[in-house]
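Our platform keeps sequence and structure together, in a single record for each protein. Such a record has a labelled line for the sequence and another for the backbone structure tokens. This encoding replaces a full spatial description with a residue-level series of whole-number codes. Below, we set out a record of this kind in full and without editing:
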Amino acid sequence: MVLEAVSDAGFLPELVVSQPDRPKGRHLVLSPTGVSAYAREKGLPLLTPDSIKSPEFIAQINNLRPDFIVAADYGKILPQAVLDSAAILPVALHPSLLPKYRGATPLNQVLLNGDVETGVTLFKMVAAMDAGPIIAQERYAINDNDDAGLLSDLLAKKGATLLVNFFTGNKPALVEQNETSATYTTKLKKEDGLIHWENSAQEIGNMVRAFKPWPLAYTFYCGRKLQIMAVECLNREFYLECGVIAGITAGGVDVTTGCGLLRLRSVKPEGKNIMSAQAFSLGHKLKTGGRFNNHE
């Protein structure tokens, strides 16, 4: 978490602002964000406004007149009246190499597209989405086992280091983003995780990594939803209809796709815990020739 890393480096915020507590889980228990929970645990001043555009909130920030305003994974564009209250600079962290992948889901999209590199950007905030001039960037070569959750944690740490270095070092010149190179991402929906077996093994493998930990890639077997947790793309062709079980081994369940075989390594059946694909095959008596579907 950026807040924790910056605080540990000795930069205690005058005020922490986070999203309001929201109902979560099966029983919709009102729960704080990770930022709110950390701020309360450490006794840091905290606000969780319903609207950052309200006159009351804007007045509070203007009266505080902080040196810096820092945004990390807040999820909303700060109004100009809030940005103007920073005595030195309003800055933000974004987990992509801006101007590419502006918006809500950069890590998901970079994995879906099969990119080999991503990174984190520290930039000056303006009243437009991820559009301000760049202060610093750090690149990261994506590994085959990286998923969106792992990348989020890793780039948050790298972003926190960029921020601490910015606070402690010489202030670099700001570089305007090239608007002609800008690309945008959109929010994910649960149904985006539905696997279409007509796609290639590589595309489906990218999808599994991109949608972990949410919304998770899924398919259906015998009318029951099956979430796919880990896969391996096999460099073999198998000429059957797409979504057909081509083989079952100790390593997993091999499934045909539009191009290549995809080995399911671990899965999560509906209402069950994560298990190996082989264990699932034994418990549900999977056989070669059986089929996964994209509907119940």
Notes: The two ends are 39 Å apart (CA to CA). The mean pLDDT is 94. Residues 2-181 form a domain with the Rossmann fold fold (CATH 3.40.50.170).
